Amino acid sequence: MRIDVVSLFPEFVAQCAAFGVVGRAVERGLLSIHGTNPRDFAEGNYRRVDDRPFGGGPGMVMLIEPLRRALDAARRAGEGPSRVVYMSPQGRRLDQAGVRRLAAEPRLIVLCGRYEGVDERLIRAEVDEEVSIGDYVLSGGELPAAVLVDAIARLQDGVLNDTESAQQDSFEDGLLDCPHYTRPVEHDLGRVPDVLLSGDHARIARWRRMQSLGRTAARRPDLLDGRELSKADRELLQA
Ligand code: SAM
């Protein structure tokens, strides 16, 4: 998969390609991340990328033309059509299902705003969807873009090792993940639950499922709203 990030600070997002799972995805050739800076497409000595908002008020607005040229350049840099995503607090809130959908695209262009945001006409003409990472406002789209890139990278086939499989992560099956423990068995902070030491895989799977259901009910009951639980899950939840 190829992701082009259009940003005034493209190095910011490229940094996340240097580490951990995203780094591995890039190293293995499963993901490539490219930056395009709208300033490189701005005119005049000052290479201006923003201007004052019509109607007055505080802040600046990103100009259409440098962004449009940067998006065109990003489009031309790869092959095939590309979905354009604008990181915006006004977008649809990102969840694991949304990440899965975007991770299945062959190409993405991720547009990062700054200042008060982007001229609305560019959004209407060039953007396929707006994506928010939560109901709070950051000063730029680069951190949100890095969040999206990371979440997408770990879903690319061949990126995660078996032991890190995304299948058991929170939200994958609509529930929160179960708790995890590692050595030592005994610690002054507590003992590892006996069931995990039993070697009885069926019992362990049942316990994990029960923990997932219980945690989800306690911490995120909204995830269970409208969900039809199986008889076995209902029994585990009540156990
Ligand atoms: N005036 C805008 C508003 O209230 O909707 C906020 C602009 S914000 C200061 C600048 C840029 O940061 C946005 O254009 C967007 O790219 C990015 N941004 C800020 N918060 C975000 C969020 N929660 N999710 C995704 N992008 C965000």
TrEMBL record:
Q: Which HAMAP family match?
A: TrmD
Q: Which domain of life is it from?
A: Bacteria
Which residue range or ranges hold the tRNA methyltransferase TRMD/TRM10-type domain? 1-224
Record key words, sorted: Cytoplasm, Methyltransferase, S-adenosyl-L-methionine, Transferase, tRNA processing
Q: Which residues form the signal peptide?
A: none
| Cross-referenced InterPro entries | Alpha/beta_knot_MTases, tRNA_m1G_MeTrfase_C_sf, tRNA_m1G_MeTrfase_TrmD, tRNA_m1G_MTases_N, tRNA_MeTrfase_TRMD/TRM10
Which subcellular locations apply to this protein? Cytoplasm
Designated name of the protein? tRNA (guanine-N(1)-)-methyltransferase
Which family, according to the similarity comment?
A: Belongs to the RNA methyltransferase TrmD family.
What is the enzyme's class at the highest EC level? transferase
So where does S-adenosyl-L-methionine get bound? Answer: G113, I133, G134, D135, Y136, V137, L138
Q: Which organism is it from?
A: Cognatilysobacter xinjiangensis
Q: What is its main location?
A: cytoplasm
What's the gene?
trmD
Q: What subunit structure does UniProt give?
A: Homodimer.
Catalytic reaction equation(s):
guanosine(37) in tRNA + S-adenosyl-L-methionine = N(1)-methylguanosine(37) in tRNA + S-adenosyl-L-homocysteine + H(+)
Q: Which Enzyme Commission number(s) are listed?
A: 2.1.1.228
Q: What is the lineage of its organism?
A: Bacteria, Pseudomonadati, Pseudomonadota, Gammaproteobacteria, Lysobacterales
The free-text function statement in the UniProt record for this protein reads: Specifically methylates guanosine-37 in various tRNAs.
